[in-house]
Amino acid sequence: MSEIVNDGDLTIIKPGTDVVASMAEAFKGELLKAINASQGTVVIDLVGVEMVDSVGIGVIIASHNTLTQAGRKLKVINVTKDIFGLFATMRLNRRFTVEGVE
Q1: pLDDT (tens digit, 0 to 9) for every residue of the chain, 102 residues total?
Q2: pTM as predicted
Q3: Could you state, in order of their start, the residue ranges of all structural domains in the chain?
């Protein structure tokens, strides 16, 4: 179960576990619920996440597409170096903001 924090125009979602196929359907549902219940930017905080597989990437891309259609933005933060490399290789960091661990 993801932690969801609403902070003004920001909605921060922390999955707290690896974003992989086994949890993707539940995470997708949580993201959509959070997107529909909020306004403004949605932030996926990957603190503590060590792995994102292709299904997880698909969920994140679907969220980005939903937000873009509504004129909103997606940010993915606290991304490990390996996951950032994956996002960069797929050029996803050009579609939405991806920030590494500080």
Answers
A1: 899 999 889 999 999 999 999 999 999 999 999 999 999 999 999 999 999 999 999 999 999 999 999 999 999 999 999 999 999 999 999 999 999 986
A2: 0.94
A3: 3-100
Which top CATH class is 3-100?
alpha beta
Which whole-number Å values give the CA distances from 73 to 18, 20, 40, 51, 84, in the listed order?
Answer: 23, 23, 7, 23, 18
Is there a contact between 38 and 13 (Cβ–Cβ < 8 Å)? Answer: no
